[in-house]
Amino acid sequence: MRRRPRHVLILLAVLSCCGCLLQAAQNPPATQPWTFVVSGDARNCGDLVMPAIAETARKGRAAFYWHLGDLRRSSSPDEDIQSQPEHRAAPLSLADYQRVEWDDFIDSQIKPFGSIPYMIGIGNHEVIPPKTREEYVAKFTPWLDTPTLRAQRLKDSPADDRVKSYYHWIDRGIGFYFLDNASNDEFDDVQLAWFERTMARDITDPSITTIVAGMHKPLPDGYNTGHSMNESSIGTQTGRRVYADLLNARNDGRKRVYVLASHQHFYMEEAYNTPYWKDHGGVLPGWVVGTAGAVRYALPTPSPKVAMTNVYGSLLATVRPGGEIRFEFKKINEGDIPSAVTKRYGKAFVHWCFANNTNVTGVARRVYSVFR
């Protein structure tokens, strides 16, 4: 094979360097701390809890809010929708509820965030029949195809004009990924190829210091394997592959890596600090924050040192210059529900959400009919 002349090699090296400098100029790292807010699982009582999380985002001056899926229950009417004044006297049928549940989510759980950018994610309840992934994408295209996400999608692949349930964007040196594992056949080959191709570019980009991967179901082999990607053999296999990719980004790419998920209706830190991952490559920092309104679940046994249930709230993430991220759980108490929300749903239902929306304490979950 003919060797290229030395002046050609020098020119190629200069062009490559210029490309890296251009990327860095387009994606300058932060010089001051900044914040974002994350939570997931907003069914059951999400219409009450999410407006309070919006207040957390406002007070924390969040650059965006990130929802990790399970917007509504879908399989049966959410208690909060049933408790709305217009539905107390004439309860919705299941078919009527399924026609309005996502519109309710937009009105009750997105609009309270006002001008704060809203990054939306798909969960397993978004694909419960008759709902489909295609219907979800069509309904939430305004949030899945924002100018930021569209520009990044076309930058990653100029021919990619299709809006999808998974996405990637870059903000001040942080590469964010939302991965769709809502159904047991994910991650499929197309999504894996996209993720690994896009991740490879982020790893080689010197302006990107940090990778944050968000998804609905936690990656496999953490705590509570019965409610994670271990739910299916495909999920177990492909989830382990994504975990290995993220390990590679940390170990070989020298990026900071953080993994965020919900699906499990409690709060947990060190979600992957398990014997399996200690023996299979290493422990990634991971959080589970399925605390945006869904019925609360018992913690797994064993649990990590920091884990809480029977709580609502969100993660306030503070990004420091250099890409380190500190996460703080911001709990929502009964008194934090905005007064306008309490007036609409009634104090009795607000209290029910805090006292009875649980499968943990042994207190019987009173059915909604007690508020009619």
Walk me through this protein's architecture.
With 372 residues, this protein is an alpha/beta fold. It is 37% helix and 17% strand. The protein contains 13 helices and twelve strands. It has a seven-stranded mixed sheet. A five-stranded mixed sheet has the order 3-2-1-11-12, covered by helices on one side. The N and C termini lie far apart (82 Å).
Distance between the first and last residues' Cα: 82 Å
The number of E-state strands comes to 12
What's the mean pLDDT score? 91
Radius of gyration equals 22 Å
- Judged by helices, strands and strand pairing, the structural class is alpha/beta
Low-confidence stretches: 1-25
Short description:
The chain is an alpha/beta fold and 372 residues long. The protein has 13 helices and twelve strands.
